[in-house]
């Protein structure tokens, strides 16, 4: 009777990890056992046992308790590092938690990450200006943060690898990742309608509205229409991307038909909206309900829990790191990934006030 070679679960996992290591899925440092266990949906002890086998084989080198193992591959298997340019939307993006995690994650993987010399907003999303900047920047691959459709379309047509983090990437042949905000946007809109709100405004950057509203914006308008509300520019106001025009647009809204609820895209605009309301002595949520489409650590210091859409940074950053490792091996990856997002009902929304005096 032939001898059967039955592998234990840890041996099966070790074989899979060995294959992925040799393919260059990870470089420099191995992900920790908790992360891998979560990714694979298996027991952490099984992953630990598998990684111990890879240590015994010399493919992983321990670096002490709590530290990720160092990857040690035959020289011919080591994937080349990339000069990875990160093109952010504006200067403040550099301190965003997901950008910081991405930057250090790329460095940990052995890539030479750096920020592009100019910001998208400073170039007014002008494709010609972006093209000149890219031409004068030495980089092997690009990660573009919150790009317009036109900018991302240009990157998708270039010979070098590009990745879209957020932005208007739908329908373009470019790898991307971002939170799926459509379901929580619908939930937030329904919640406001149930609270009696009929004058609901969504404030977003021009590139989220033009040339046509994006996915979450379209879902917002569709949900309003499904409840019998007429929709138009009042619900999705137009404004030029400047501080003065943003505040001027809010001022116009409250002078004519004051909204009873405002959904604000991005934390920076949420803070600006709060300042505007405070100066006009408009109370949240007594006079107007307020929701932010993103979350931020600063919200933890608010006595009123901010109603917001939140999402996990980890899978977003992990997707970009994996993409960088794939393209470093010359492999093509244009998958567009959405990660879950959810609506948190905080204390900044309440029943619609029947009458709100106009600003005089």
Can you describe this structure in just a few lines?
With 360 residues, the protein is an alpha/beta fold. The chain folds into 3 domains: 9-76, Winged helix-like DNA-binding domain superfamily/Winged helix DNA-binding domain (Arc Repressor Mutant, subunit A, Orthogonal Bundle), CATH 1.10.10.10; 81-178 and 312-340, Rossmann fold, CATH 3.40.50; 182-310, Response regulator (Rossmann fold, 3-Layer(aba) Sandwich). It has helices spanning 9-22, 33-40, 44-56, 97-108, 127-135, 149-156, 182-194, 206-209, 215-226, 243-256, 267-279, 313-328, and strands at residues 60-61, 70-71, 83-87, 112-115, 141-145, 162-165, 175-179, 200-203, 261-264, 289-292, 307-311, 336-339, 341-344.
Amino- and carboxy-terminal Cα gap: 94 Å
- Classified by CATH, the class of the largest domain is Alpha Beta
Q: Give the helix level as a range of percent.
A: 25-40%
Q: How many domain regions?
A: 3
Q: What's the CATH architecture of the largest domain?
A: 3-Layer(aba) Sandwich
**What's the SSE pattern?**
HHHEEEHEHEHEEHEHHHEHEEHEE
Outline the biggest β-sheet: 6 strands, parallel
Spatial strand arrangement across the major sheet: 4-3-5-6-7-12
Q: β content, as a range?
A: 5-15%
In total, the number of strands is 13
Determine the mean pLDDT: 91
CATH superfamily of the largest domain: Response regulator
CATH fold label of the largest domain = Rossmann fold
- Helices and strands: which structural class? alpha/beta
Q: So what's the overall shape?
A: globular
The total of helices stands at 12
Q: In angstroms, what is the radius of gyration?
A: 24 Å
- Unreliable runs, pLDDT <50, ≥5 residues? 1-5
